């Protein structure tokens, strides 16, 4: 039986995570008595390279040093997952362990070799990092966006893949609307995902983010700060209507969370328009199906 067949069915085997994958691989190797591709093998550390587009970008050096000391004394217990690349291998999951193994001065590491394509590589990397809680909110959001933009995944499919709700995926993607400096604060841990979500509707999220950090505000206090900072359009009755009111913005957010899309409402006294933004043909198809009443 082909040991790669379960992984070629999109969003089934991968959704169960790395522990299931490794369990199947170990069982196959023990039954065959050999080390086929997919079995656990000892590979030279120097023959393995990290994946340039892996979701995780930030590695805590102190935590890496601690893991390196543990590996030095006990060895690398859990294998990494790699795929063939040129004359060597590319990491699919386990870059942190590979880095720590280098600090422990290991010459070889246990690895599972699988012939993953690009989309499977990214899927496995996301699942493994999320299960280990290794990704910050921005890294997770960027990984989701790449799967949507480059590989046509829907938010519903991503939710099933990582065992999260579609609204969780949608809320994370909204963080990417924030300025780069604010996203950097989230990536470094200076701001939480809750703080970042509260800053999305702000007129100047960068300056408010600094104020939140400097004053060590809670998420609720951040929400109050954003509301106080926004101009009170209701008090400017004689001025020309500009932008959406707080109620319209709340409706935009509500519709955006329901649809998993960016929603813009342009309201005027005599009417207005509702615009839905999409980033792929797959999302456009989803919009057409929902408007026509077809089941997705």
TrEMBL record:
Keywords from the named record: Chromosome partition, DNA-binding
Recorded GO CC terms: chromosome
InterPro entries: Chromosome_partition/occlusion, HTH_ParB/Spo0J, ParB/RepB/Spo0J, ParB/Sulfiredoxin_sf, ParB_dimer_C, ParB_N
Membrane keyword on record: no
Pfam families (alphabetical): HTH_ParB, ParB_C, ParB_N
Start and end residues of each ParB-like N-terminal domain: 41-130
Regions crossing the membrane: none
Keyword DNA-binding among record annotations: yes
Coiled-coil stretches: none
Listed GO biological process terms: chromosome segregation
GO MF annotations, alphabetized: DNA binding
SUPFAM superfamilies listed in its UniProt record: ParB/Sulfiredoxin (SSF110849)
NCBIfam families named among the record's database cross-references: parB_part
Function description: Involved in chromosome partition. Localize to both poles of the predivisional cell following completion of DNA replication. Binds to the DNA origin of replication.
Family assignment from sequence similarity: Belongs to the ParB family.
Protein name: Chromosome partitioning protein ParB
Native organism taxonomy: Bacteria, Pseudomonadati, Pseudomonadota, Alphaproteobacteria, Sphingomonadales
């Amino acid at each position: 039986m082909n040991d790669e067949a379960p992984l070629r069915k999109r969003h089934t085997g991968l959704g169960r995570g790395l522990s299931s994958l490794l369990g199947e691989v170990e069982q196959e190797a023990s039954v065959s008595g050999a080390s086929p591709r997919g079995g656990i093998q000892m590979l030279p550390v120097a023959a393995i390279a990290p994946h340039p587009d892996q979701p995780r970008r930030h590695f805590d050096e102190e935590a890496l040093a601690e893991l390196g000391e543990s590996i030095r004394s006990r060895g690398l217990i859990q294998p990494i997952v790699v795929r063939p690349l040129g004359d060597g291998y590319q990491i699919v999951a386990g870059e942190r362990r590979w880095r720590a193994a280098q600090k422990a001065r290991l010459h070889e590491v246990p690895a599972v070799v699988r012939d993953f394509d690009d989309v499977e590589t990214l899927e496995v990397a996301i699942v493994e990092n999320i299960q280990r809680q290794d990704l910050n909110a921005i890294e997770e959001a960027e990984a989701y966006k790449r799967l949507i933009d480059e590989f046509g995944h829907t938010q519903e499919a991503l939710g099933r893949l990582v065992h999260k709700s579609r609204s969780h995926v949608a809320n994370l993607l909204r963080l990417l609307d924030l300025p780069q400096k604010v996203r950097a604060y989230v990536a470094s841990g200076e701001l939480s995902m809750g703080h970042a979500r509260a800053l999305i509707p702000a007129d100047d999220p960068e300056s408010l983010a600094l104020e939140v950090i400097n004053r060590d505000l809670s998420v609720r206090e951040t929400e109050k700060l954003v509301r106080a900072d926004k101009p009170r359009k209701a008090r400017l009755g004689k001025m020309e209507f500009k932008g959406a009111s707080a109620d319209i913005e709340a409706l935009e957010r509500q519709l955006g969370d329901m649809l998993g899309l960016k929603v813009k409402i342009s309201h005027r006294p005599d009417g207005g328009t509702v615009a839905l933004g999409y980033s792929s043909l797959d999302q456009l198809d989803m919009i057409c199906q929902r408007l026509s009443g077809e089941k997705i």
